[in-house]
Write a structure and sequence with these properties.
By secondary structure, this protein is of the alpha/beta class. Helices cover 42% and strands 22% of the residues. Strands 3-2-1-4-5-7-6 form a seven-stranded mixed sheet, with helices on both faces.
């Protein structure tokens, strides 16, 4: 084989995701039952201080505040924070929402009885820095409780395929594997330096839509990951083929004959 020809030209990697694009609030509505379950498992009580990391539109933060906790929601997306404030005001809940990231929380040492993250910390660029911050702000005898998707469901497989298509369209390699926030053993090792113990439990979330095609169409115009990923593939690859592949995944994983109905499994991990 002749390998003396010109090397393949590669493009820059994808830009950092702006979670404020699109309409993530539609996805947040689908995830609300999981946010409620997260707060329930965390055992949030009245009078406790709670930090919701990657709070998005504020789902878990508002559920915790409704239980009487003093809640701070932290997220890097200004538009989502504005939506969270609107929802808090509409529900007559006193919740503070501020800009911030998992690796640099605007919270004093030992300042939170409960550190929550509903599918938020899983997107942290530096898992070690996020774990260090969570441990730093956790009060003595406090707990860290977060949710992470388990591999295998059609929706998670769809996201994996889209991410692969983006990298292929940009001509870049797969890079290092992301930290497995769904792996109890890996999480336990991550928190070993802080002397914390990890327990986890499996949960499930039902996602529905009028059809698989309707679900894909909504995600394509509302979810920040889908919007940014499809834009890259449309420009540098074959967006039509990707959409067809994603639809096949959803239809093959559909559990209903009359509408779209799929079960996504996730893990709730408690660290204390």
């Amino acid at each position: 084989m002749d390998d003396t020809g010109p090397a393949r030209t590669t493009r820059a990697g994808p830009a950092p995701l702006d979670w404020g694009i699109g309409h993530y609030e539609h996805t947040a509505a689908d995830l609300l039952p999981a946010a409620r379950r997260l707060v329930e498992v965390a055992g949030v009580e009245a009078g406790e201080t709670v930090v919701d990391v990657g709070c998005g539109t504020g789902s878990a933060a508002l559920v915790a505040a409704a239980r009487g906790a003093a809640v701070l929601g932290v997220d890097p997306a200004a538009r989502l924070l504005a939506l969270a404030r609107e929802q808090a005001a509409a529900a007559h809940l006193d919740v503070e929402f501020v800009a911030g990231a998992a690796a640099a929380l605007p919270v004093e040492d030992a300042g939170a009885d409960v550190v929550l993250s509903s599918f938020g910390v899983i997107f942290a660029p530096d898992h070690r820095a996020a774990a260090a911050e969570f441990a730093r702000v956790r009060a003595p005898r406090g707990r860290i409780v977060f949710s992470a998707w388990l591999p295998g469901s059609p929706v998670i497989e769809m996201n994996r395929l889209a991410a692969t298509a983006v990298r292929e369209a940009l001509g870049i390699g797969p890079g290092p594997a992301p930290f497995p926030w769904h792996d109890e053993a890996a999480i336990a090792e991550l928190f070993v330096p802080y002397g914390l113990r990890v327990t986890a439990q499996r949960e499930e979330l039902i996602i529905t839509a009028a059809s698989a095609a309707a679900y894909l169409e909504l995600q394509s115009r509302s979810h920040p990951l889908a919007i940014s990923g499809l834009a890259v593939v449309d420009r540098h690859g074959d967006g039509t083929a990707l959409r067809a592949h994603l639809l096949d995944v959803l239809e093959n994983g559909n559990e209903s004959d009359t509408h779209f109905h799929t079960t996504s499994h996730y893990l709730i991990t408690t660290v204390r």
